[in-house]
Specification:
The structure holds three protein chains of three kinds. Chain A is an all-alpha fold. Chain A is built from twelve helices and no strands. Chain A has a single domain, classed as MetI-like (MetI-like fold). Chain A is globular. Chain C is an alpha+beta fold. Chain C folds into three domains: 220 residues, P-loop containing nucleotide triphosphate hydrolases (Rossmann fold), CATH 3.40.50; 45 residues; 97 residues, Beta Barrel (OB fold (Dihydrolipoamide Acetyltransferase, E2P)), CATH 2.40.50. In chain C, 24% of the residues lie in helices and 34% in strands. In chain C, the strands form four sheets. A six-stranded mixed beta sheet of chain C has the order 6-7-8-3-9-10, sandwiched between helices. In chain C, β11 and β12 form a beta hairpin. The chains are: A mainly alpha, B mainly alpha, C alpha+beta.
């Protein structure tokens, strides 16, 4: 028994190292005083300083933040509605449309939207990227909100109605406050998904618009500099904070993304 | 609820806006793409006019026929499927002990251990690919150490980066959490008493695993397999960044059609074939999973 | 005019008829109970009164006005839910103030009303607590206070005590009786627990398969069950069925298989039934050692019966006021305060009799296998037609 457990721990530690070592290396090298990502030379904050003076990078970051803000706000509103609708009503089409964007390969959505926008003569840019991000974030928000609703005692709504509340009052005063942690968690998740998205953005951004992931992509495709390490570290830090807050608000979040 | 008659305004008010959005920005684009696969590419990319000057409708199967013309496409598909299967199996082998350990941990540590699996997955996709560029790079310790050893045996140095090996390692790395989560969700529900009963009935640790735990975990295994397989099959960024010249997968082919060759109909054909293949194989896995678990329940 | 008038109400779910043409008139100030096994339709009926469900047929009138088009929030009816349904994100005060806010009571008046409601349920000082910080019994009281604060015409209680442990339940029963008397509001109470229903109610409607089997006062429900179902559902009851073979004034003689002739007073309204059932409560049966075997040498156990002398005097067969049946003890169930004996007759029928263990130092009077004689007054059993 004890031997089996030790083997299990050993295997698990290998798996955890496999998960974290690569990211740790990126972080460590972002402080490395060398142009090559090969060996540790000495500590420096140069790459972060360079980053602060890199106009392209800063404009990409601003684009990403703007898109993520809009996409998370709109998708949270629509996703919350979808989650409530899927919980309360027997619907056929909506659950399919909410869940398939999550289930099909990302590239499909990217190219389909590319064709769609070009055929409509819609200029590819910040707006098209935000519209695309909203489409794939709705599902994630809806799942979190629905999970939250599923854990709620249905008789609370009846009790509110019984106490004289109209359906809208019951929603405003009872349902909404109770699902709020799920809604906020969904919003943070949508923000993270949007700011991290590469594949769909790659197809819908067009030539002139650059987001952080696109900027990172062109840097690692063309010329790797440790500036990539620095911007990656900052981006990871932002994501980490957002996700920890979201997980705290909605423990079910831990299980939502893959199912 | 009370209102059973008439039009349910509340239902449409709540489900209408997300439904409309997803119809416009998901369903419609997907259908348009499906339609585009039957069209002819335009002279300067995009699509030729739907109604030609001579009044004929531009709908044909030429792009589908192109797929059959050359075995090169079949090879790319085959390679993508093999990569996706290898990734799935490797994820399963790595994820199983991890999920088991988390499921057997005291309740208060479980969420933390699980969070530790998920966190890297939420960091940027490109950063995770980029991390492997550093690790596998020719100047990094790993490549130098390996090639140093190989040199002792007189073997030519092998590049780790820009190879199928790099693509596979990163595929596994990126998709591992997809396998851990459903496996954990399944293993967590197992009744410990079953193992005690099996032990009581004379089963050793090995027998207990293969006769009890593993069959019962099959639904989780198949769910995880589908979650890894589908995105792995359609990936393009990983071979694009870490792969060598021969590591073209379906995803890269699709990207080429849209952003380089600008042959939309053929790109659409590839996307449709990819999606159908991914969903069909995942559906097959789910179906086997249901039968498998039903069989396990009977046995 | 009845306060709540339920007329021919039917509710179907697919092929299943949950409530089947139920008509009830509930009077103002009553403590009225809907009693029945799970799935009998009592909760569906309650939900239709509250407005959470709508009848397929029939109507529900309150104070003479049809409730059909009024959603739950516009009915002067409040529900105490089985799960209490206290809003977890509001304090106790917040919960009780909620219906007042919904009724647009001026905010200045709310605190006093909340305090009063809390006092009614003896929870003064608990207003700032969150529901999660209360015990089961306290939550129960908050739910009641919340329902009563707007002085509804009717209070509906859906198995409100089901989640409490036995001791607390009994305490709450007494509190409910007192509270109902104090506030003078009509209570409609749903339960599957017959002792609870008997203890609390002014009147009880026993339901089965969506229909009302009997509507009566508790003592009549227990003592004079109208149907076999009611007799069987309420407490323990021997059901002795057979054809009517003789009729002597108000007294019917039934030929019960395995038992023989059983005489019983005909119930009102069914004097000319040709087949019937005598519902006989175990505690109505007097159980003594079989007098014909009493002379035989005593068995290994000390024999003797509490009423031995009396039983000997009553001659078997010729007694005009009592039935006498012999048998032997097949099983017994020692319950502490009483012991239930299952007596098997020579004909193979089984009859339950119950003896109070009132003599100290003795666990029971008979052992398995003992020959006994059961006797009961002709008017002790209640006859049911059919």
């Amino acid at each position: 028994m004890r031997k089996g457990r030790a083997a299990l721990w050993a295997a698990a530690i290998v798996a955890y190292l496999f998960l974290y070592l690569p990211l740790a290396i990126v972080v460590v090298y972002s402080f490395n005083d060398s142009r090559l990502n090969a060996e540790w030379v000495g500590f420096t904050l140069d790459w972060y300083r360079k980053l602060a003076g890199n106009d392209e990078m800063i404009s990409a970051a601003i684009n990403s933040l703007a898109i993520a803000l809009v996409a998370s706000l709109v998708s949270t509103a629509l996703g919350t509605m979808a989650g409530v609708a899927m919980h309360r009503y027997r619907l056929r089409l909506l659950p399919v449309l909410v869940l398939t964007p999550i289930a099909v390969p990302e590239i499909l959505m990217g190219v389909a939207l590319l064709i769609f926008f070009v055929l409509l003569n819609f200029t590819l840019g910040l707006v098209s990227v935000a519209l695309a991000h909203i489409a794939f974030c709705i599902g994630f928000v809806a799942i979190v909100v629905r999970a939250r609703l599923a854990g709620m005692d249905e008789s609370l709504i009846e009790a509110a109605r019984d106490c004289g509340a109209t359906p809208w009052q019951a929603f405003r005063r009872i349902t909404l406050p109770l699902i709020m942690p799920g809604v906020i968690a969904g919003a943070l998740m949508a923000f993270t998904l949007s700011i991290d998205d590469f594949v769909i953005t790659f197809f819908t951004a067009g030539a002139g618009t650059v987001t952080l992931p696109l900027q990172i992509y062109s840097m690692i495709k063309i010329a790797v500099t440790p500036e990539v390490n620095a911007v990656s570290t900052l981006l990871m830090l932002l994501t980490l904070v957002l996700i920890l807050v979201a997980a705290r608000l909605s423990p079910s979040l831990l299980r939502t993304r893959p199912d | 609820m009370a209102a059973r008659a008439g039009v349910n305004w509340g239902k449409w008010a709540v489900s209408g806006p997300p439904l409309a959005y997803l119809i416009v920005f998901f369903a419609a684009p997907t259908l348009i793409m499906a339609l585009a696969s039957f069209r002819t590419p335009g002279d300067f990319g995009g699509l030729a006019p739907l109604v030609a000057p001579d009044g004929t409708l531009d709908l044909n199967l030429e792009s589908y026929a192109r797929l059959a013309e050359s075995t090169a496409y079949a090879e790319v598909f085959l390679k993508s499927v093999i990569f996706a299967i290898v990734t799935t199996v490797a994820c399963l082998v790595l994820a199983y002990p991890l999920a088991t350990l988390i499921a057997q941990s005291p309740r208060k540590y479980r969420d933390l251990l699980l969070l530790l699996v998920i966190l890297p997955f939420w960091s940027n996709f490109l950063i995770r690919i980029y991390a492997w560029m550093i690790i596998l790079g020719p100047n990094a310790a790993l490549a130098r150490g390996l090639n140093g050893v190989l040199a002792l045996f007189g073997v030519e140095p092998v590049p780790l980066l820009f190879s199928s090996f790099a693509v596979l390692v990163c595929l596994v790395y990126v998709h591992l959490p997809f396998m851990v989560l459903p496996l954990y969700a399944n293993l967590e529900k197992h009744d410990r008493a079953l193992l005690d009963a099996a032990q009581d009935l004379g089963a050793n640790a090995w027998q207990r695993f293969w006769r009890i735990t593993f069959p019962l975990s099959l639904p989780g295994v198949y769910a995880g397999a589908a979650l890894v397989f589908i995105p792995a099959l359609g990936i393009f960024a990983i071979p694009d960044i870490l792969g060598g010249p021969n590591d073209t997968l379906i995803g890269n082919l699709i990207k080429q059609q849209f952003l380089e060759t600008r042959d939309w109909p053929f790109g659409s054909v590839l996307s449709i074939v990819l999606t159908v293949a991914a969903l069909a194989l995942a559906g097959l896995a789910a179906w086997i999973g249901r039968r498998g678990s039903a069989g396990a329940a009977r046995a | 005019m009845a306060l709540l008038d339920i007329q021919g109400v039917t509710r179907r779910f697919g092929d299943f008829t949950a409530v089947d043409r139920v008509s009830l008139a509930i009077e103002a100030g009553e403590f009225f109970t809907l009693l029945g096994p799970s799935g009998c339709g009592k909760t569906t009926l309650l939900r239709m009164i509250a407005g959470f469900d709508v009848p397929d047929e029939g109507r529900i009138d309150l104070d003479g006005a049809d409730l059909a088009d009024r959603p739950p929030e516009r009915r002067p009816v409040r529900t105490v839910f089985q799960s209490y349904a206290l809003f977890p994100h509001m304090t106790v005060e917040g919960n009780i103030a909620f219906p007042l806010q919904m009724a647009r009571v001026p905010p200045a008046e709310i605190p006093a009303k909340v305090a009063e409601a809390l006092e009614d349920v003896r929870l003064s000082g608990f207003g700032r607590r969150m529901p999660q910080e209360l015990s089961g019994g306290q939550r129960q009281r908050v739910a009641i206070a919340r329902a009563l604060v707007t002085h509804p015409r009717v209070l509906l209680l859906d198995e409100p005590l089901a989640a409490l442990d036995a001791k607390l339940r009994e305490e709450m029963q007494i509190e409910l009786i007192n509270l109902q008397r104090e506030v003078d509001i009509t209570f409609v109470y749903v339960t599957h627990d017959q002792t609870e229903a008997l203890a609390l109610s002014h009147r009880i409607a026993v339901m089965n398969h969506g229909r009302v089997e009997q509507l009566d006062e508790p003592s009549r429900i227990y003592g004079a069950p109208a149907t076999r179902f009611v007799a069987d559902f309420i407490g323990q009851c021997n059901l002795l069925s057979g054809p009517v073979v003789a009729r002597d004034g108000g007294i019917l003689t039934f030929d019960v298989p395995g038992v023989g002739a059983v005489r019983a007073t005909a119930a009102e309204g069914q004097p000319d039934a040709r087949h019937g059932t005598v519902a006989l409560r175990p505690e109505k049966i007097r159980l003594v050692a079989d007098p014909s075997e009493a002379a035989a040498p005593a068995g290994p156990h000390g024999r003797g019966a509490p009423h031995g002398g009396e039983a000997r005097a009553a001659s078997f067969g010729g007694d005009p006021t009592h039935n006498h049946v012999r048998g032997h003890v097949a099983d017994l169930l020692y319950m502490g305060d009483v012991t239930v004996y299952r007596v098997e007759t020579p004909g193979g029928a089984r009859i339950e009799a119950l003896l109070a263990n009132s003599q100290s130092g003795r666990a029971k009077f008979f052992e398995v296998g003992d020959a006994v004689e059961m006797s009961w007054a002709v008017d002790a059993g209640h006859t049911i037609a059919g």
